């Protein structure tokens, strides 16, 4: 019956395949026809395709070139704007024509690539230092994947289905347009390997192939970008874009236009890393951070909190060990557990206590009791603590007791408390004893005080996060005196990556390594906004379907699931859930031993370096040989993965380590049952678990996968349903026993889905912050590019003059200050206007503006006649580039400062995002006004030189690359603590500030946890269950 319904109502993916299948048939027919062609005739097809594209686009391209050349002439502003609009329309028309031609020749081009692959079979060459023998010819499902990629979609292809080969088909086709196409990989090794491995196919067909590597100089990069096809990592492409927008001469540009890109492992690049900024920074004069200064105090504070939690957990353990516990003692134990959870949620003793379902139930019951009436009694719980940690939302908060500990004196204590800015301003304004000047001084002093305290509180919060939420050898490692972030998905060390918002400096202070000096942002963009630059974007991965909604919402990328070449016969078993991690690890070791006895290879997937090393220690005790692949052994990745499929091999790796390299089964392994996957913990994202499972069962190979979980795991502890704990308690599960059922596995996946939805909401929120900067960046880079490409800017200068004169006249006309106006005009434009008071009144505002504008433009035109049009254009570009770079740098600094303290606005009942947008816009408008004023002053004063002096004008100085630093910030800890996420209530566990007023959660309101369920069906129901 189910099959009948599937035939009547096919899925979206099945419908997509039906529309693509006729194209695949056509490709295969042409492939057979091309068998009769000689090698030279087949290679000549590339030139034929190019000629067909050029014949359709020559006319449009000539019009575009003609209009671009006209922009170098002196044009009226309105005419220039019309040319820009016409250019934009012609560019769109040109891309539409190219797209239509490429669609027409797709079957022929794909058939040519397939035929080239066949003719290369048996040929040997080197790829990334390894000898390879070519033996691949695209089969039908790979052709389907290639068509999906050409259409600008995401192709989800299972591990081992040959995504690297699939990409050659659309890369060849789109490279024929001559605009350059990019393939983005996750690291330099894969970029180099794939460019050399697949590069021979492209070279055979007459295309050029390049690769961008980290150590290349600008000239080499330019050469690589000028190739038809360029491989490289997301970071390298992004940083080159930023550097191109810092050059002072168009000859220094390295990138061409952003036409078409395929992103390999698209889920990792466009989901995990996309919201984190790429930053090019330069040194500032002195370090201004307070991390070293405050670190000793915070360290003592954390130790005091640890001692307090040790006492509370010991008290709870003593009470709960009794046979008959009175209600009073049970309440004491519940209070101790709740306080410990608010103080240090990752405390080892606390986690051990909470692994008992009864204790977890007691914690929830106590929490529900104090959450009543908008948590009005929660302060009874929190007032005894020094600081609070909300692990789910990544928030820390200093309590009054903590402030007293940090600063015993009242004067110092006030320094850790923000002044009520609004009421203080009102108080100053209403003080009759102060003059207007004294009020301004008081307001300036208040602003300075607020900024200083905000900086101190930000430093304290980041240090508390460093101590309470980030663990060495789990979230980061310390190597050569530097804090290095560990990729939570692959276990690789992310060289050059830094945590954002000062968190990295806080961790450096915590680990007593050198705290890097403060740097100034010179250029920044998130990967998300970089990839939006491409006219057409596509992606491929083994795990994208679970994030399909986000891909479409943010990038308008559709996901197509490509069928496997051979049916997957992997056995994905139900999860086994234990009470404690110790029981779970013992079960994992027993499973490894059993598989080893069967001569089956085992891949053990972990979520952290720490778990990898724990499993390794347990195996060493049993003298079982094994390999470990994590952040500390990532240099041997290729070798370890290559041997992971041999009989009896045991490999421990973080879930996504070795991604991009297939595990091939050794002799006799398939007969023994294939590769056995053991997951030691569920990741918060389902696609990471699918990626781990996908390492087995490639190309029809047998295999199996099983996940081992415990109630102490991060996902189960934070988001797993308490019903699982209740079921284990009711069933009387003994130590070492596990529960296993399809319903339990589904419950865990629902918890994962809940977390994914919550993370998506946070990422969307971050996107709104980033869009503020992106819109400003587009405006500035557009102005800069006009100057860089040699366009005449005279009309732009005159537009600036019009606006500047208007502002100046408005300022002096209201005051009736004739002399002030005359002096200001002479100082700015070097023009003397002779206006008597009578003429001043007679002309009026509009008359004065017209008079001054005409005089300024006449002066400018006289200078142009004196110097010549070419030299004046050169001066205009020099001024524009120099001042844009200077003002943009200052603006980025101001935006960094604004973002750093924006979250504290929430304490004043203001949405930090709206405040950021409003203040960011004001800063940008001020920057544009300052930009115009400075460009005008520069040009008018510069042109007052003698002609022979003006001839010596040079281009602005190119930034010295050796003083620049490029790094990719980490997204960890980037949640904004101020406003609740859209559609979510505020977390009631965080102690409310006195000025904060929140609405009581209604039974039908969204639950505060971010699940998307109503409160009565989520934590509201759980709290009632706990009380019962």
Stretches with pLDDT under 50, minimum 5 residues: 971-1000, 1022-1028
Structural class: alpha/beta
- The count of DSSP E runs of length 2 or more, i.e. the number of strands, is 25
Distance separating the two termini: 44 Å
Q: What is the percentage of strand-forming residues?
A: 5-15%
How many distinct helices? 38
Q: Biggest sheet, strands in spatial order?
A: 5-6-4-7-16-3-17
Average predicted confidence as pLDDT:
81
Largest sheet: 7 strands, parallel
Q: Percent helix among the residues?
A: 55-70%
Q: Which of globular, elongated, flat, extended, rod-shaped describes the shape?
A: flat
What would you say this structure looks like, in words?
The structure is a single chain. With 1028 residues, this protein is α/β, with parallel strands linked by helices. 56% of the residues lie in helices and 11% in strands. It is built from 38 helices and 25 strands. The strands form six sheets. A seven-stranded parallel β-sheet has the order 5-6-4-7-16-3-17, with helices on both faces. Strands 18, 19, 20, 21, 22, 23 and 24 form a seven-stranded parallel β-sheet that branches. It has a four-stranded mixed β-sheet with strand order 14-25-8-15. Helix 4 crosses helix 6 (163-175). The longest helix is centred in the C-terminal third of the chain and has 47 residues, at 742-788. The protein is flat, with a radius of gyration of 33 Å. The two termini are 44 Å apart. Mean pLDDT is 81; it is low at 971-1000 and 1022-1028.
